[in-house]
Design a protein that fits this description.
CATH architecture of the largest domain: 2-Layer Sandwich
Radius of gyration: 33 Å
CATH topology of the largest domain: Muramoyl-pentapeptide Carboxypeptidase, domain 2
Number of domains: 3
Helix content: 40-55%
Length: 439
Amino acid sequence: MESITNELVESGLTEKEAQIYLELNRLGPSKASAVADSLKFDRMDAYRTLEKLEQRNLVKRTLEKPMRFVAVPLEKGFDILMQEQRNKITKIERSKEAVLQLWRSIPPGKVEVQPTLRLIHGAQRVYNVLGEIFQEPRKEVSLVTTRRGVVLQVLNGVDDSLEELVKKNKTKVRMICEIDQANIRSVRRFMEFAEVRHLKVENPSSFIVVDDKEVIIQLVLGSSIGLPAERDAALWTDSKDFVLSQTEFFELMWSGALDAKGRIGEIETGKPAGRIRINLSQNELYEKLLKLVNHIGENQLRFGTELKSIFHALDFLGINLREQFKGIGRQIGMDVAHSFKAKTQAALMKEVTEYWSTHGLGRMSLTQENGAMTIIVDECLECKDSPNVGDTLCTLDEGLIEGILEEKLKVDADVHEVECYGTGHDHCKFIVKIAEKSK
């Protein structure tokens, strides 16, 4: 009976109400005094409790004299309690809408937002907080973890949460960890949706930066070095200065880390993968390539095609400069944009289409696909004779189109090539997404 009483209490009754309701179910139709005597309760107290249960439709009165109380069957009683909870939720939902509407009508005050800190104890609580953070749409997540840490993240479902973010929001995920024979399987799991690099550090650190806005840094690496998981502790903060410092630290580590594929190949073959470091900013690379190509002149798009050839050669050698070349393409696009006169998107894309043809870059046509503007380029100047290498090749063009759109329309543009001669297609296809410029 005690366990049933506890369940009824959990469902919304007080302990006394649950005891009297169960006893009345056991006794059958009874006077209040009989129930009170059976439970050794005060008679008036038992009567008042029966009246409360009657108001909730869990107890009924008989018409006979002397009057008796009858409990509704237990199954029906639970149905009544469940409906009460549903009614409460409905009421809270209505209150929420009403309160929020009133709240939005109140002019915001000038409140200075202060950075906050939160200390999290226990490994499971840390993973629970991560799960909450990854429920919201995110643009970028950067992780640094230990050899053991990457395995624990897979065991605790961090990989699934991040993969879901990538699928739903195209979140950019980067991870740095020390890769060895014991964690290759977990590393490969992250490589399915994230960029992963290997770095061996003397003092293992573990932290996560989310959207350059918040950081979780592990302070005690309990479960990572064989200590009990309860010993784990982590610090969460949205302090701008602290987040900035961790972001810069991550970028420094990232620039010196080895691509995961190279590291895994190193482990599996026993041959050192080595690494190539390019200590240039994007602007410095832009200037040096300008001098190298020596086609500065007025025709910057011609220069752009030369850059694309260099990009292909570097990519073939395993030097991935896609991000840098897209940025260079954007710079060129912004310069080229000043030659266009259009002020609307439709008129601008007409000019861009003509410009592509005039400069021999290919035949461009526009369509709509799933609500997004789609650009098809036939006879692409630089890649139409390329073999099927299993990858897109027009990274520079992505940036070029983005730069033109952003400079002329003052919007945020995202251009992504999804089909290319390099992927075995007979054209190049770009998906264009345009949004109002973020303030």
